[in-house]
Amino acid sequence: MDEKSIRRGYLTGILVMAGIILIGYFLNSIIGILGLVSMIWPQNLYFIVLLTGIGLTLGLMSKSLNKTVTDVRILLPSVIALGILATIVLIKPNGLENGIVSRLLATPALFLSVFVFVGAGAFISAKLRSFKKNWSQILALGAFLLFCYATVVSQHDYYQLSMRIGVERTLFEAEDDNGKYYRLPFAVKLMPNEDGLSKSMVRIFNTVDDFMDVRLSSADNYRLKGWDIRLNENSDASSSEQVDLKLVFDRWIELKYISCGLLIISLLIRLKY
Fold this sequence. Notes:
Blueprint lengths: L2 H24 L1 H7 L8 H17 L3 H7 L2 H20 L7 H6 L2 H21 L3 H23 L4 E9 L4 E5 L5 E10 L9 E6 L5 E6 L5 E3 L2 E5 L10 E9 L2 H20 L1
Antiparallel strand pairs: 1-8, 2-3, 3-4, 4-5, 6-7, 7-8
Helix pairs in contact: 1-5, 1-7, 3-7, 5-7, 5-8, 7-8, 8-9
């Protein structure tokens, strides 16, 4: 294959990637209404399994089709673009103030995920025929897909819990919107608000002897062990009896770092093999 043909292949891939991003960017207002960009568990998992399944099926089809859907030169630019967006989510999980980047993390990221997961599924399926020769590629691509799922696809998938605390007892559990209770890795208790301040004094326990007193409001949060803790907007902070807390935790925080580590290891293996 001559150099001109290689350049033409990568140029096609760059154009495909740019086209996906531009279409997604201008369709943000329309697709955003449907809620597809903000998928949460288990819908996001079903969505990715469906896309990967479609790709695996395509990879089992004719050789002529395989040459199109598994062409690294066409898929690689989109993989790089999605990887950049995934890295941004990893570094800034609470979002960015930059409006352009925020819009790219919405519908364009969703469209890129569709293209990459289908293409990657087809690529893996086609390469399984010669697994011994291509195992390092499959490993690296699998780790990359796992990383993108935990970041881009699941970027809005959080535990969103609430709890009502008072001065009489310490609580270890919080409740979600469906009434299910989750045990927290810390305990919380309200301290008496004797000075009438607009912020509530809350004591947060790691252990019985290890605790910290922090003042909370609906605007000022406190982060502990990956949890974002703040006063519920409808809660009366001046009350000395009880207040409502809102607790948010990234459901996939462990998978983000595990998949990132696997990706780095698999890339190092790929360089060697």
